[in-house]
Amino acid sequence: MEDVPGVKEALQNNDTAAAAAKIEENLKQQNNIPLNIAITGESGSGKSTFVNAFRGLCDDEEGAAPTGVVETTSEVKPYPHPKYPNVTLWDLPGIGTTKFPAKKYLKLVGFEKFDFFIIISATRFTENDVKLAQEIQKMKKKFYFVHSKIDNDINAERRKRDFNEEKSLKVIRDDCVQRLRGLGIGSPQVFLVSSFELHLYDFSLLHETLDGDLPSNKRDTLLFVMPNINPEIIRKKKKTFKRRLYWLATLSAAGAAVPLPGLSIAVDLAVLVGAVTEYVFAFGLDIPSLKRLSDRTGVPYTDLRAVIISPLAAAEITTELLLKVMTQVGRTASLILAEEASRFIPIVGIPVAMGLSFITTYKVLNVILNQLAEDAEKVFEKALGQ
């Protein structure tokens, strides 16, 4: 995270309250950057199932986009992410229907609010898909072709005696690309995706491409909502959270500047509860996410839970629980006591207390973050039977 404007100046002027307010405002903004993703394509292409998979939901869960063998989307329908309401996937009606003809499609769905479009097809991309892509391009928006239900195609190919998965995927991808070129798209990039097995095929490549194309301020937003499709996603989330540790620790230090007994630890706990809750959600270690993973993979919830070490995973994050965890991190208790005592030393007490508060919060969050990231990787491996 870049330097927060005004914080250094406020600290140099001993205005810790102003510094804390600027940090809090910046962190809040970082966590509320809007991201609107349009999912479109022809009827029956698997749009709704893709929307649900991206949001980490099963098709039959409450809040999931309705799916079916016939077109189930008759209007522009927003589906906020269950853990990140600033991220919305929009399930758009199939292009080329009577209500949404191709020529008026973008205007009718309100193209201006979307950050990018994902055009989905379960078979071959059509002229309507290409017309839509060309119109999106005219509006200077990004679009991506996704060939969904690739697992069905591979399962059909698997019946052949000379089956080779890599070769079959190349044939399918090349066919999609050649068809799109023939319909007028210059250098199309096609992603082969299974909404039921996001860790396979091209979903990782799709994320990498989106990450490279999005403005820098929206990349972290996309990253945190991404399902843990591979260990690299987990490591990227951990790295991003590490960048924010400095500002969280600085926020804690600002609380230590006020000479009131117990105030600093109260500020620290508030910072810790918010940060750790965010870690648990992003790593998919909350109870609902673990149960969904169990349902999707068939691995019992108890087996997934058994590989987790951190007491903060699959638990309600409370101040009491965090205090207990903090005391288990080396020398944390003595640092807290030293901070409380030093605050009342004339002249040098407040700066010393601020330094100790910074060190304590940084150290605790760093240890917790590392352990939760390790747990997320263990859960991923267990779910896939590795």
Mean pLDDT comes to 84
Helical fraction equals 40-55%
Give the CA-based shape. globular
Main sheet makeup: 6 strands, mixed
Would you report the number of β strands? 6
Q: If you compute it from the alpha carbons, what radius of gyration comes out, rounded to the nearest whole angstrom? A: 24 Å
Give the low-confidence spans. 259-264
Strand arrangement in the largest pleated sheet: 2-3-1-4-5-6
For the record, give the distance between the C-alpha atoms at the N and C termini, rounded to a whole number: 34 Å
Helical segment count:
16
Secondary-structure-derived class: alpha/beta
Helix and strand run: HHEHEEHEHEHHEHHHHHHHHH
The percentage of residues in β strands lies in: 5-15%
Description:
With about 375 residues, the chain is an alpha/beta fold. Helix content is about 55%, strand content about 10%. The protein contains 16 helices and six strands. The chain has a six-stranded mixed beta sheet with strand order 2-3-1-4-5-6, with helices on both faces. About 40% of the residues are buried. Residues about 260-265 have low confidence and may be disordered.
